[in-house]
TrEMBL record:
This is Btb poz-like protein. Residues 106-125 are annotated as: Disordered. PROSITE patterns: BTB. It comes from the Eukaryota. Residues 37-96 form the BTB domain. Pfam families: BTB.
Amino acid sequence: MPSIQQPPALKLDTKMDAPNAELLTAFASLFSSGKYSDLTVQCGERSWAVHKAVICSRSEFFDGACSLPFKESSTGVIDLSEDDPEAVEHMINYFYHLDYLSKSPKSRRATQPSSPASGPRARAQQLSANAAVRMPGKLDLALVEDPLLAQAHAQSVPSAISATEIPSNAPASPLLTPPHTNDRIDYFSSIDAKLPLSPVDAQGLDDDRLDYSSYESESEDEAGSDDAPSHLIAHAKVYAIAEKYAITGLKSLARRKYAGQLFDDNHWSSRTADFAESMIEVYESTVDTDRGLRDLVIQAFREHPELARSKDVELVVRDTPGAAWELFRLGWGLPIC
């Protein structure tokens, strides 16, 4: 069996009573030693010796894989090679520590190396290069001998846009009233920051979604460091894998950690690029109705309108239709969903 990677040192809450601390210490010892292990989780070239009683009781996916007549139940090996190794490691650490600790931050490019043409900037440039191929010329409906299409053409002229289609109290569109000098950066800040967020997803998250000051940072050492590392991408990946394998507690924890770094004003300026890249994970790794991280992203644009000046953010938004649509609605003062 492959060697087991030594987990990070266990951090216990000083307020935790002795029995709970004893239980977590025992779990940490089981994980570090591999004693009584009866299951192996693989992800690419990495593997972890785990215990069915620990992980199957926390996830219906693992419970089904081990109890139903699948290959995993007979071989004792669960292959998660399709998932991100970093996210899998954090998930397993959570099973035994009720927490996960990000090590050196790894971006989407670092965990999925393919070629220099990766990441939001390169992807957007590639889209621009292929725009002529992917976007056909506009169809002139007036030339089509079909009464329905002809009627559609007659109703599609710009003058046919009625005033009822746009709320009377909506802010002026930046396309109709071009901003001057630095006015563009104040566009989002002109929107009422107290616009209602979308409903919380059905996970029953109990944290205060508006009081972002209550979210704690990664650690006291990182919070006080001028070069505190960003783990926004890692937290977004952990959130996605927790949703995939129905691990409610881990999903809630990843959301709190993501918000804790996202709204840490002390280091915001150094995290814009990582925030932009984490948006790809947020909008591509979960379903549209999952508002857990999406609402945090939208709130970040409300609180930091200077994001509109970030080239990394611009390229990601251009390449991520879900984010572009929600920011469009935010700009018009409309509900996100």
